[in-house]
């Protein structure tokens, strides 16, 4: 297993040495975890001239839930002198790593300028004035886009857990319960079924709130006749998936509810069916968006209809009108169009799928809960 | 109520204009919320030359739980074109705000270099090349240290909620339940009693895990004879408090448990009793630390014995050996010494208190759950 991490680091090293840099400093937690198997709080990863070091602000065994660092990697634990989370976790480790880079005779260091703060960057220049600082850019994020089967397997287990939690909720009585309670109940079930925790704050939206992307649960109670939109995900071994479904409460959905549901369903299907290696991100977005657009919902549409998932819940690619790039095989993405009508509510349907070539059966659906309109 | 926010902004303006800057850009979410009453995701606050603007990436009414922005503040909502959380929330708003600063004829802009990334800083330079960028430093964090009675009242309510949730847990059967379950149960109860949510991930630590600061709950079950350490907090209207207690499971604590508990209790009391306006941060830390130190636990000690709380769970001041500065009245802090003995477990006792002058009765204890050693 640990060769995986060494291989990833070696690919990154190829990248920054080709760009003329001797060493690299990785500070974004999901990137550290991707390359080191673990990202203890406040840690920084140095890919040095002579060896790679994971710099931690405390012994990683104090935080077993954050994963065990790759054994091929040397650990460098900083002494605990007045480290405060308020002072900005990770700062000491980044400075110490820059110092260690110099000790390895590095003359240049690529840093993650999109993650490192200006203050930290200045501090590195101050502790290591001889070091030429460059930009690693989103190199690690780019490596992370295409997943290996081990990573996909973690996403698949996470999706099963989310499906189970959602399935159990649907068997319980919903009317009269608040959005907040339902969300907490779902999060408890995720953990019951083996998740590390929720992949993101669980969203439960009823009545006029339904269909809203990222709605934070309120004290509104489920009522007869409501749309109920639920969006949740599990984190499993660090990997995050998501599923979203909309239901109707009571025995007979209103006509407008059935129409809106069928429309969003058609849009979501169009998005799913357009997932293929080589498909442009914007074309997948357009496939889903076009269905809603031509029904007159252009105004109500979200900025994106899907996104990559992995060690973060929202990573590259973005399935959006202005996104550049094409899908590869083994890229997991969400397809999640929705329509929200102010004052009335709406529908959102969200799956996590893995892009696969047609020869392998086409896109692999990880979140298998039914997308029929259930009346609960 | 909204004058509070205008007054805060005006104090900040005095600060940066005195430092020779025309305008300021605030991006750290807790700082935006402090000055604008709300910090919609991805928002940035511009204190401009002619007027103040809250720049949002979407209408704030889409996120009612994040608070309503101060009505005296002009909102500037960006069009939703391909904004992706993965691309770094807040980026578009920061760039737009810099642009708006220029439109107001500002020639210089103080930014939060400890929050703004290097990449964003460069992007601002690119969109507004005529703008001289300075550093706002931790000016807003410094304003936030001393709380007004409205803020303290939010902390007090949060502490009551945490006390209630903890009190209810103690009435239930604990043996056989896992750390994860107990933590989830506590978080559900926090929300039941009116919290916005937990102030930080609830920590439940049993047996050998007990006494560990920031322990993440595992699947270990509570056993007879265990120490059980619980650390939780509620967020109420954005304000975060914390409480930590250690209990013993079963009818008769072992001698080492009673001894260790009494010692940590004495340390925590010494820390609490040293809280007074004018007391040096390091002296409060030393008061608590000294008790543990002289009992031979110097090795087992954490880097800090307390910290400020407010819109963030860990803010200034740090009560640590190398901290510089003195307490003021109306500063809420935690006092939370603990000892963890590897393989055996330990004790941690944590209160949130507000520094008050002796004439007002001395430090105000917000978290009032008993600190007697309860055998459950």
Automatic annotation (TrEMBL), chains A, B:
The ranges of region (Disordered) come to 197-219
> What InterPro entries does its record include?
Creatin/AminoP/Spt16_N (IPR029149), Creatinase/aminopeptidase-like (IPR036005), Creatinase_N (IPR000587), Pept_M24 (IPR000994), Peptidase_M24B (IPR050659)
What residues does the Peptidase M24 domain cover? 154-356
**Which Pfam families does the UniProt record give?**
Creatinase_N, Peptidase_M24
Highest taxon of source:
Bacteria
All copies of the Creatinase N-terminal domain together span: 8-146
* Name of the protein described by the UniProt record: X-Pro dipeptidase
- Say which species the protein is native to: Streptomyces fodineus
């Amino acid at each position: 297993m640990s060769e995986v991490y060494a291989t990833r680091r070696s690919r990154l090293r190829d990248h920054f040495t080709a760009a003329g840099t001797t060493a690299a400093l990785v500070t974004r937690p999901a990137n550290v975890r991707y390359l080191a198997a673990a990202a203890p709080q406040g840690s920084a990863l140095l890919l040095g001239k002579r060896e790679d070091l994971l710099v931690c602000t405390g012994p990683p065994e104090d935080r077993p839930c954050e994963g065990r660092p790759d054994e091929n990697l040397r650990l460098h634990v900083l002494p605990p002198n007045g480290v405060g989370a308020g002072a900005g976790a990770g700062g000491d480790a980044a400075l110490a790593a820059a110092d260690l880079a110099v000790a390895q005779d590095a003359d240049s260091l690529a840093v993650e300028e999109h993650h490192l703060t200006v203050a930290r960057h200045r501090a590195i220049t101050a502790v290591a004035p001889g070091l030429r600082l460059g930009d690693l850019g989103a190199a690690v994020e780019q490596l992370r886009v295409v997943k290996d089967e081990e990573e996909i397997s973690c996403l698949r287990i996470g999706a099963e857990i989310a499906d189970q939690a959602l399935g159990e909720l649907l068997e319980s009585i919903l009317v009269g319960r608040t959005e907040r309670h339902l969300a907490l109940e779902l999060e408890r079930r995720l953990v019951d079924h083996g998740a590390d925790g929720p992949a993101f704050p669980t969203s439960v939206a009823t009545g006029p709130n339904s269909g809203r992307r990222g709605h934070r649960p309120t004290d509104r109670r489920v009522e007869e006749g409501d749309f109920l939109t639920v969006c949740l995900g599990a984190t499993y071994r660090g990997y995050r998936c998501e599923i979203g479904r909309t239901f109707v409460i009571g025995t007979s959905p209103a006509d407008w509810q059935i129409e809106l549901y069928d429309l969003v369903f058609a849009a979501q299907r169009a998005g799913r069916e357009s997932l293929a290696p080589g498909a442009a991100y914007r074309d997948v977005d357009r496939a889903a968006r076009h269905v809603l657009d031509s029904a007159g919902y252009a105004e109500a549409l979200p900025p994106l209809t899907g996104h990559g998932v992995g060690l973060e819940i929202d990573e590259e690619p973005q399935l959006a009108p202005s996104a550049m790039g094409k899908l590869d095989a083994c890229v997991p993405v969400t397809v999640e169009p929705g329509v929200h009508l102010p004052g009335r509510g709406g529908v959102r349907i969200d799956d996590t799928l893995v892009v696969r070539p047609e020869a392998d059966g086409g896109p692999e659906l990880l979140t298998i809960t039914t997308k029929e309109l259930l009346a609960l």
